[in-house]
Amino acid sequence: MQRHPELQEQLRPMLAAAAQVQELGEFKPRPEFRMQTRAMLHGYMRASPRRRPAFSSGFLRLATSLGVVVLALVSTGAALAQSALPGDPLYPVKLTTEQVWRNLQSDPVRADAALANRRVQELVAVQGQAELEEISINLYAETVQQLRSAAKDDPQLTAWLNQVLLVQQDTLEKLLVNSEADLREKLFELLFQPLNNTNPAPAITPTPATPEASGAAPADKAIVATATAGPLREIIPTVFPILASPKEETPANRGVLPILSDAVDDTLDTTLDIIKGLFGTKK
């Protein structure tokens, strides 16, 4: 106040209050007030008990643990199912996970091509088991049909898929020898079928051969005539439908036609040589 006499009126009440606080010292609530406050809190807690959650923490922990176990089992089962074959208990799980995987792919056509490779591998694995072979053939045929539908209006995609299926058909050819008779027809239908064949050329007209010209023994003349004149020459265009495909290069078969033509010509010549050699025919 001596340093600032002009502020005496404002400072005097404040200094008086500070002096009183200093005289009182540390402030503590009265014991009666503390007891009264504690009693009020206890009464409020008894009147409004805490509600327990609908699910206790123990149940939630149990449910969480079970969820983790189930998720682990499903993941393990899906992983083990990838090596399952037709007839195995986990094979349906494998097909389901494949469809989920396919639906998540940005390019479903390439996904179908990969699945077609899987079906061929399964067909090789179950070779000799007619029932399982039939399942594998049907699944492979369904996948190929999806590929044909996808490549219907895309020449470049058609050419790429033809090359993919050509590799798979090489494997299918090797299965013909050991397959059951009733399954061979289904394999025949899958062999050398072009994806997009809009202008098929006429089938090759066979030139019949006579038993006398073949030089076969009398007992075999009928067999030779049947094998060389009719069924063999008539079946070959059916077994290898690509023989009836266009002989001129088109956008759909550009780059693939020379490969297919050479493969078919070699196969046809080899087949005829084997038949003639078996029955003693002359070339």
Description:
With 283 residues, this protein is mainly α. It has two domains: 72-196; 197-283, no CATH class. It has twelve helices and no strands. The protein has helices at 8-24, 31-47, 57-81, 91-103, 108-125, 130-150, 155-175, 181-190, 211-214, 218-228, 231-239, 257-278. Helix 4 runs antiparallel to helix 5 and helix 6 runs antiparallel to helix 7 (155-175). The longest helix is centred in the first third of the chain and has 25 residues, at 57-81. The chain is elongated, with a radius of gyration of 43 Å. The termini are far apart. 16% of the residues are buried. Residues 194-249, 252-257 and 279-283 have low confidence and may be disordered.
Biggest sheet, in brief?
A: none
Average predicted local confidence, pLDDT: 67
Strand fraction = under 5%
SS class? mainly alpha
Oligomer: single chain
Number of helices: 12
What is the ordering of alpha helices and beta strands? Answer: HHHHHHHHHHHH
Q: What share of residues is helical?
A: 55-70%
Write a brief caption for the model.
The chain has 283 residues and is mostly helical. It contains 12 helices and no strands.
Element layout with pairings:
Blueprint: H1 8-24, H2 31-47, H3 57-81, H4 91-103, H5 108-125, H6 130-150, H7 155-175, H8 181-190, H9 211-214, H10 218-228, H11 231-239, H12 257-278
